[in-house]
Amino acid sequence: xxxxxxxxxxxxxxxxxxxxxxxxxxxIILDVEIGYDLSKACKSDAIADTIDYGAVVSRIRxxxxxxxxxxxxxxxxxxxxLILKEFGxxxxxxxxxxxxxMPRLKALGVVIERVNNNERY
Length: 121
Fold this sequence. Notes:
alpha+beta
């Protein structure tokens, strides 16, 4: 399986357990790895034979701007399912980081990976 990656995507969303933390959008940083068979795109050089990463980025930004989550885990799962279902990925790995939310802490977050059970490798 091949991998399309999106690194350090900064997105504004409402995220946090306390309600006051979800009042204003905050910046999160995403790393996304999308598993897909790229062999056809390698031969054809056609965007129709791959996953359009620009469309993935736009869709993530659009949906997270409109959404609110309490947990980074729920946000990561949401992104995984979006990419699996809307873009037909074979697998997705998402790292969600909340930067500088505590003193002397660069970031905290989660990494989750999901496989499309409807696809076979």
